[in-house]
Amino acid sequence: MSGSLNGIKVIDLTRVLAGPFCTMILGDLGADVIKIEAPEGDEARNFGPFVKGESAYFMSINRNKRSMVLNLKDPRGREILKELVRQADVLVENFRPGTTAKLGISYEELYPLNPRLIYASCSGFGQTGPYRGRPAYDIIIQAMGGIMSITGQPGGEPTRVGASIGDITAALFTVIGILAALAERERSGKGQYIDISMLDCQVAILENAIARYSVAGEVPKPIGNRHPSITPFTTLRTRDGYIVIAVGNDNLWRKFCEAVKRPDLIDDPRFKTNPLRTQNWDELYPILCSIFSEYTSEEALAVMEAAGVPCGPLQDVGQLFHDPQIRHREMVLPIEHPVAGSLWMAGTPLKLSRTPGKIARPAPTLGQDTYAILREMGYSESQLKELEAEGVITPKAKKE
Amino acid sequence: MSGSLNGIKVIDLTRVLAGPFCTMILGDLGADVIKIEAPEGDEARNFGPFVKGESAYFMSINRNKRSMVLNLKDPRGREILKELVRQADVLVENFRPGTTAKLGISYEELYPLNPRLIYASCSGFGQTGPYRGRPAYDIIIQAMGGIMSITGQPGGEPTRVGASIGDITAALFTVIGILAALAERERSGKGQYIDISMLDCQVAILENAIARYSVAGEVPKPIGNRHPSITPFTTLRTRDGYIVIAVGNDNLWRKFCEAVKRPDLIDDPRFKTNPLRTQNWDELYPILCSIFSEYTSEEALAVMEAAGVPCGPLQDVGQLFHDPQIRHREMVLPIEHPVAGSLWMAGTPLKLSRTPGKIARPAPTLGQDTYAILREMGYSESQLKELEAEGVITPKAKKE
Questions:
Q1: Are B164 and B20 a contacting pair, CB within 8 Å?
Q2: Looking at the domain A9-206+329-389, which fold is it?
Q3: Which chain B residues touch A320 with a CB distance below 8 Å?
Q4: Hey, are the CB atoms on A207 and B318 less than 8 Å from each other?
Q5: In chain B, what residues touch A130 (CB-CB under 8 Å)?
């Protein structure tokens, strides 16, 4: 079965998270992703936990790539990169703005070698503007981009999203930019430069918060797990965990009350209509807590489902492994790694009928494909020996 | 200036959030997006706040689209849809699985009319598996997909991400699936079916949480705003808000302590190294709180920047409007709407050098382009009158 991007060659100069997550998706879609690593390797190779010396963090976001060690500080390293660029469709990098110019591999320098090249940069703040040179970490981007100010319990602290949504969102937009440029290249025959900023992407995903502020003049605050105007539409604690229920209208409210054997609540003047329930939440919430404290999550969900009330369990990462839907969709699955053995990771959500995303190979060990790629490029064995002896393509010895 | 997807025609059957966010991005990229609405319109048109009767929520995610009212329950409505499908490149829908089959517009029924058609479905749980028919809301997907279990303060409640990340992530992956299928169609000449599930997408963005659990056997928990292993790397309260600092190593720790005039902390045996700071966080945190309670956020950031400590303000949605970087990148900007007037919304992060994303038109009023589109298709004025009289293309009168 072929991939959507078969035949597309990607030069991957990315490290850590946003860039590698982007090139992983290109790899899942069938592109030939050549991950170029400095002799010391992607920093993420040093992030624990480790399995037989291999980083689980690194392995989980670098599948479907080949690894080539190339010292870009050596002029011969840069020459090899330029040869690769001549044959490539896409280059992705996530250095801090200015770094590629220092290394002599900026878009301006590489574009003349291959006018069809699509060169994507993914950075914290973008390549332009007053903050372009600043260091960016996910939490700084989440903080500046507004999402933390609307996440958390009401009246509590602004809260970081537990996944690195600053990096991941930028990764997804970088993929979109690259694929859009590929589509455009079919018409124009030309590549172009793509400048994705993590901060831009955070602003882009705030959906209605900006318009709401613009119209109502009210700064959106954290509202915890409630819906702003539909009640009850929230998480609730059970005997052994949490569930979510979504009682979207008065008819469902009636069914809900009957299901939990509290018909008295249906016409209770405090809770009879959705606006009343929303207004009197402080009185309703303890009643619901007391009701659900009698059920396990499984029991509560069975009762809700039987009554036709939209609901679901609040699952921790361990529980995902046993969810029948997630298993059916192959969204958590083991990948065999030559050194680390079997490692579980997220599958691909890109379910295309003819050319679905797929996991064709585990993450590479540092430089495992250097020789193969150079041989494909026509280098002789003696040239390889020379490049190795001079440290151009040699991985730094790993500390034990 | 042309767009990356100029010449691509998208039939948009989506409502509310995930689907419309996807087609908005296709529109930002220059595709011709024809939003087909039932006579009563996209439900999101009823979500407040309103400006002169127009929903700010709706307007913020439906720019760059034309609106056509079409009653798909009427056979003539379906015939018109099928004519459009013959000329289209992409169809996107986010009904609950099974609905398109009931309406007679499933992929199986439309594909024979246009084998080049890319048909993307975006649903809560996907088109297959035991939960495929279940109702999905963002909070149910966030709960089941694991992200809530790792978001929140340590020891506190699992917390919903304040933006509808369940919908938005699915929207981004749907765009990626569609663009990948367009790339593949250049080689094969064939369209295909795309089945995106919001739950799949939530699992896909957990990054290292799955691998971490798989390797270490420990269920990841909410850890608030701290970094798990680097300290201090967190939010801190100031006199008038919050800031984030990221003290990534012992050298920065020294600079940090000097900057806040607490050189005594540098070699304090509790805080001398990063592992010690991480271990003794409960003692360090109150000291930092007391230090920063003396500064405003602006003062604190000036001190941190002067010392070279990575930092940033925690901004609420109102503050985004004044951030010089966000303004420079045009990520918050006013769009003129013919009825509502000027409405602020998020810009596009898709900064491509030759064919950048752009906002070419505001969100459409219900059915504003019905006639124009039908005339483009060759319908005569008398045919239009007839279709209107029989309610096939007539918007439902708005309640005042």
A1: no
A2: Rossmann fold (3.40.50)
A3: 145-146, 203, 210
A4: no
A5: 324-325, 328
How many Cβ pairs within 8 Å bridge chains A and B?
A: 499
Q: Spell out, as residue ranges, where chain B has pLDDT lower than 70.
A: 1, 398-400
A9-206+329-389 and A233-316 have identical folds: no
CB atoms B126 and A343 under 8 Å: no
Residue of B nearest to A347 (CA): B204
- Ordered by start, the domain boundaries in chain B are 9-206+329-389, 233-316
Q: Which two tokens stand for residue B14?
A: 């989506």
The answer to whether the CB atoms of B57 and A211 lie below 8 A apart is: yes
Nearest to A313 among B143, B216, B344 (CB): B143
Whole-Å CA distances, B65 to A180, A289, B58, B260: 18, 44, 12, 52
* Single-letter amino acid, residue A80: I
Tell me the pLDDT tens digit for each residue of A190-218: 999 999 999 999 999 998 899 889 998 88
- CB nearest B4 (choices: A5, A134, A183): A183
Give ipTM to 2 decimals: 0.97
Closest CA–CA distance from residue A384 to any residue of chain B (Å): 35
The arithmetic mean of pLDDT across residues A27-31, rounded, is 98
Q: How do residues A219-272 score in pLDDT, each as one tens digit?
A: 999 989 998 889 999 999 999 999 999 998 999 999 999 999 999 999 999 999
For residue B129, give how far its alpha carbon lies from the nearest alpha carbon of chain A (Å): 6
pLDDT tens for B7-62 read: 999 999 999 999 999 999 999 999 999 999 999 999 999 998 899 999 999 999 99
Of B4, B317, B328, the CB nearest to A220: B317
Residue of B nearest to A234 (CA): B139
Does residue A399 surpass a pLDDT of 80?
no
Cβ <8 Å between B219 and A148: no
**Do A157 and B224 make contact, defined as CB atoms within 8 angstroms?**
yes
**What's the pLDDT tens digit per position in B119-174?**
999 999 999 999 999 999 999 999 999 999 999 998 888 999 999 999 999 999 99
Q: Which residues of B are catalytic?
A: 167
Judge: domain B233-316, CATH 3.40.50.620: no
Q: How many residues does chain B have?
A: 400
Task: Give the model confidence (pLDDT) of A36-82 as tens digits.
Answer: 999 999 999 999 889 999 999 999 999 999 999 999 999 999 999 99
